[in-house]
């Protein structure tokens, strides 16, 4: 087993997908131990650290990477299996942020209101008890919420020579902000450029559906990822797989288009996996499909379309790479 | 315990919320045993019964009602607790329908494509084994899906002297098509007219998230509902409560506005229930809130915002009517 | 020439399309002299009359009607030619209104901001000089704007036994708020119920594109309309015609769907009028078509699709009813 | 007068804003004579040249540039005055394109329909008579349309180290596809990177509003541009000015957000230019503002907000650079 550990120095952090040189080369089959900073670059540490004061645009939502995957070429699929995602600190933060979030005027949904108040919440992270503790700012109210660590941002370099801010989710991945991206999940990303150039960041101790205020329980993470490459198989939009489900994603505006992309991909993928004709697959997904909301606050919104593998009959998903990576992950952790 | 049984004759079915006389008077505290027809009025019985041939616009999505609730006035809240929802036949149907569904041109998302093929699927319903059996139309593929019976449509007469087709969800309820509306759930509806004038229909043996093809596993239902009235308490959008969660809904286009409405209502409701200031409630919902998709195919789309009651501290929801109706339902069924 | 004059008393005003009895019977071929109140029912008369205080929901946007057109049946088309639209007072008003407008949180685009300030502007209307005079409220700035009188609201009773608030534009017409609906224009409305049951209201001395703050230069109007009926010809969405153009409308959310509906209708209508196949008509409209924005602030948004008749070759639009009504209007005014 | 002529070789064409080296240095005050290729790179020349066969993604919508403007720094504004835009050939083309356009399923508004037929129309361009001649493909129908030459694409390198496909309009400009961008207009673009790095392309002999089928009358152009730099003045979204109007733009999805951005910018800009408080400016724009539709087919949609300068009182726009560049253009052409 080949293991690669990497912890970026501040100046090695990336703020785009595309447009950067690789920080390291990774061979398929490698287990990676990665450190990722939180979306504020670790600068928001107390309730007095207002992000608009301590952070500087566009140096937000840093990712660890990009990594050049040996042998990856356009038309291939990169598989990243998340073995472990562990909060790296005993605290985390969340904030409102001027002109960001679903229930506020933004630069896109532009209105004449003054911004909502900028406010920071600091959570205690207790890994032993597996909780994050919420503390109200204007009262003594406090409540423990179960941790469910995930990465908001994972992606590869985009097609068409684009470079995109890490905050933007699209066909290359990016800031999808779906709680489905937790340990035990394999993410499939279509390769657009030689080496794939993937990056990971934006760890969340937990996140509500849609990340309605714009930020989750933002936490630096120690994350273990198993990397594999599937040659000659293209993937149109990021997909995921866990032991029980296949998942497609879509990122767009308006939100129904994110829904359409994800459901369209799940229908056509189901058709491929089962041999069902398209309308028969449409029907099956219509009754048995789930649609977890990713983000409804970023520059594109994200929806996930999810189907239990039990309903697909006997079929093989991406050459069974999920099972192999899961086994590799188990070997690593044991 | 007062029990009212009602089974509409075909000519008693309603196709709008508002604009109709009551079919019966109901006193708060009543248990109702209702029969509801499926969304096709029971006319689609075989795979050869194409809905565009056997059904006639606007006689689609019939509801049972409206019921006049004794004493209900604008500004009150009607509470409907679903005690039991039982498929009434050993079969159910689903279909594509020209210009209806999320992955097809519609009269609203108007395009130049010919309609998708109209096709009917007939499901076997097995109550003993609690499954609906899907059969592909173009192959031998078949799979059992677990039943999770629900009502797609529940609502009251709208405000402002409007009458709306039952297919449309809005602030008065209507065709929200959320799988959350299953047995064990109490629905809260703001009363807009004297008597509330509520109706129920559109039973689904089960439904995927978003009802992507436009129809679910459509089934006539035998449904038991406990009715209560909360005087002097207004409810801006339909809300729900089960033993573990409070839920708000929003219905609008685009889908992000349905999300916004539902999350806005959940945030302000959470603030009321906990005494948290608005931004503190926004933060709590942002991390602990769920957002199950209702429909993404009707004339308005529907989202649900859902929060575990465990995170609200000691609080009382709608004068604890859910607990009382749940007890009444248990007394009825035992 | 048959002339019918009608001025509603306050209690005769209507607030819905559908759900009301006719105020009068009108025979095709009649010239109608109508008085319409402004959208505030004439209650906002000074800058101190805040609409949220002097008006009461749902008694907003009153219309004059409904009128029962002799012989009109579902499947016919009602033609209303606007001969004259004349402001009835030497003042008019415009306002911001809490939760209404394009650059503010609304009940649908729900956000956590406090409402924008409610403010009233009073315009001087000078018919001789054909101007409305804008006066800033917080400074001495003043400017004359050319009058371009129009009706924001015109429609018939909706299909499917619906009744809709007059504020809502949809396939039956309603509050489309397009400046294209000025004198000299013939509006075509598909008849959904026996008698058509049309109403008119919401006069604007002038209006910007999209009515961005939610209200225009709101004015009572003395309006002359020539009424005709086209038997056996259906019209899917409101259409308009002036001496030089044919126009289709669409009303929906999001705004691109309003655009799609209007352009789709113009493309298929162009195909009918010219004999061009659908894609050839699509191409012609793509290069020569205009797309004036109607409203971007109401419960549905409205777009107009507009094409010079000069590009259609020799063709006859709606049996040349526009030319006949124009001539009838000229005879009336001379 | 300094004049710079530049005609790119095929390999010098650019397909992104950002991410490329400059093709030339330009000093403020220069008049540029530029050749731009059409959006198909000149490869679609007959009705048999289907773009999906003769073009290759992502080599679509080439632009001429980027040009490095001497002294331009982030926070400045680049002013480009279009002196002349002249079709370079006596023919032009337009096409449908699979999964592109407003009335078809796309990769974003993903549906299960087969693509619409791909078809090419070839227009005759007659500069003497100032017309483009449309020829139907499936009949003998033909019609002359007046030329109104414009550039669909103009922009600078984006902020935040992004590189974007030229097809995408956003705050940096890009493929806004507005017919307002014709000769006589000055475009103002906020500078994001040292040198501004602007490019121009996508000439249209004429274009309907929204470019509904996805392409206009696509033509190579000989274009004369006067370049100026406004130091220390930032511009949030592309703006335009002609002799009679100021204009703001917004590009986003859904279309109402493009409208909101453009109107918001026009309101705040009007407030700056006149000294009106924000709500007074909101009111003035609401009544006197226009809203020409840009594109409703690209990856973001574009709206323009437009106000006659006559209503602004005595004020100076961008240090009167439009008047100076217009004079320089006149000097050049005379």
TrEMBL record, chains A, B, C, D:
Any GO molecular function: hydrolase activity, acting on carbon-nitrogen (but not peptide) bonds, in linear amides
One Pfam family here: FmdA_AmdA
UniProt name for this protein: Acetamidase
UniProt-listed InterPro entries: FmdA_AmdA (IPR004304)
Gene3D superfamilies: Acetamidase/Formamidase-like domains
Highest taxon above the source species: Bacteria
């Amino acid at each position: 087993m080949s293991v690669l550990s990497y912890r970026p120095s501040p100046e090695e952090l990336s703020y785009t997908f595309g447009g950067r040189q690789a920080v390291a080369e990774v061979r398929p089959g490698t287990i990676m131990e990665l450190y990722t900073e939180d979306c504020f670059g670790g600068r928001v540490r107390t309730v007095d650290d207002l992000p608009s004061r301590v952070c500087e645009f566009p140096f937000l939502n840093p990712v660890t990477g990009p990594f050049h995957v040996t042998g990856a070429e356009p038309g291939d699929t990169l598989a990243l299996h998340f073995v472990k995602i562990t909060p790296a600190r005993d605290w985390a933060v969340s904030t409102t942020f001027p002109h960001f979030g679903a229930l506020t005027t933004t630069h896109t949904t532009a209105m004449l209101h003054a911004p909502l108040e900028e406010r920071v919440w600091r959570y205690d992270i207790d890994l032993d008890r597996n909780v994050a503790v919420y503390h109200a700012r204007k009262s003594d109210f406090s409540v423990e919420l179960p941790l469910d660590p995930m990465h908001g941002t994972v992606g590869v370099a985009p097609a068409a020579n684009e470079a995109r801010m890490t905050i933007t989710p699209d066909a290359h991945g990016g800031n999808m902000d779906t709680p489905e991206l937790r340990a035990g999940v394999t993410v499939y990303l279509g390769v657009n450029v030689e080496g794939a150039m993937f990056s990971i960041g934006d760890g969340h101790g937990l996140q509500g559906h849609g990340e309605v205020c714009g930020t989750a329980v933002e936490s630096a993470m120690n994350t273990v990822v198993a990397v594999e490459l599937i040659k000659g198989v293209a993937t149109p939009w990021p997909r995921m797989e866990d032991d029980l489900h296949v998942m497609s994603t879509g990122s767009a505006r308006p939100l129904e288009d994110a829904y359409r992309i994800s459901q369209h991909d799940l229908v056509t993928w189901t058709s491929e996996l089962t041999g069902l004709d398209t309308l028969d697959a449409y029907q099956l997904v219509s009754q048995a499909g789930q649609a977890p909301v990713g983000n409804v606050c970023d520059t594109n919104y994200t929806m996930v379309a999810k189907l239990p593998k039990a309903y697909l009959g006997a079929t093989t998903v991406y050459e069974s790479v999920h099972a192999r990576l899961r086994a590799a992950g188990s070997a690593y952790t044991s």
